[in-house]
Amino acid sequence: MTRLLRGVLFDMDDTLFDHNHATVCATGAIHSEEAAFACWTPDELRRRHSLILELIHEDVLAGRLQIDEARRERFRRLLLEAGASGPTLDRAPSLAMRYRTEYELGWRPVAGALPLLAALKARGAVVGIVTNNVKSEQTIKLERCGLAPYVDALITSEETGIQKPDPRIFEVALDQLGLAADETAMVGDVWRTDIAGAQAAGLRPVWFNWRGLPEVDAGVAQVPALTPVEAVMSALGMI
């Protein structure tokens, strides 16, 4: 018999926090201002930026790069890919600062995130976040986007030294929240880290498939959006 759901874990970026929107805003500004990037469309710049970000983010999580250093290196690599050389490469630090400013201006919760969290808390659910990121960054996002009052625990790969999809990071979250795996769901947008990781840890996965990607496992509940709240609550098995 399936146990009553008591807790829900969430991924952070592009699940509760709209990282995609903030990135579109920031790369759009950079594209319009940096002549070296005129060789690409805004979409292509965003794609290349995302790929480099993922690679460098691994170095940040592993402690090989500090965040500010990683931000500068990200744009140095982008400029190199665009064919820049010499003094143009010296613009990497200023581009990193400009990107960060625009990125923060674009911060917002994913549509429906706040009503969903409020509904979960009204039902008495325990809410946690499991994220492959650093604590300081995610804490600021939670506070500025109004998500913090609904979150009982923030579990980061930085603090635990473990990254999703390793089931041990989910086990840390369960321990902190006083939950059992079979009474806890995990909602996330990335199959490899969020859904496969949740399955390995014995959680109930719910795939937030906002990108409209092909179905991977028909046995896993999925939602295309966090609205309407009732549809998400139904996918979680709470109504």
Whole-number tally of structural domains: 2
Annotated CATH architecture of the largest domain: 3-Layer(aba) Sandwich
Largest sheet data = 6 strands, parallel
Whole-number radius of gyration?
19 Å
Task: Supply the CATH superfamily name of the largest domain.
Answer: HAD superfamily/HAD-like
Which CATH C-level class of the largest domain is it? Alpha Beta
Tally of DSSP β-strands = 6
**What is the N-to-C order of secondary-structure elements (H for helix, E for strand)?**
EHHHHHEHEHHEHEEH
Helicity level: 40-55%
Question: Structural class, from helix and strand content?
Answer: alpha/beta
Question: Could you list some keywords that capture this structure?
Answer:
single chain; 239 residues; alpha/beta; Rossmann fold; 2 domains; six-stranded parallel sheet; 49% helix
Task: Walk me through the structure.
The chain has 239 residues and is an alpha/beta fold. The protein folds into 2 domains: 7-18 and 108-235, HAD superfamily/HAD-like (Rossmann fold, 3-Layer(aba) Sandwich), CATH 3.40.50.1000; 20-105. It contains 10 helices and 6 strands. The chain has helices at 19-33, 42-61, 67-81, 92-105, 113-122, 135-144, 157-160, 167-177, 191-200, 229-235; strands at residues 7-10, 126-131, 153-156, 184-188, 204-208, 221-223. The protein has a 6-stranded parallel beta sheet, sandwiched between helices. Helix 6 links the parallel strand 2 (126-131) and strand 3 (153-156). The longest helix is centred in the N-terminal third of the chain and has 20 residues, at 42-61. It starts with 6 loop residues before the first strand and ends with a helix. The model has no long low-confidence stretch (mean pLDDT 96).
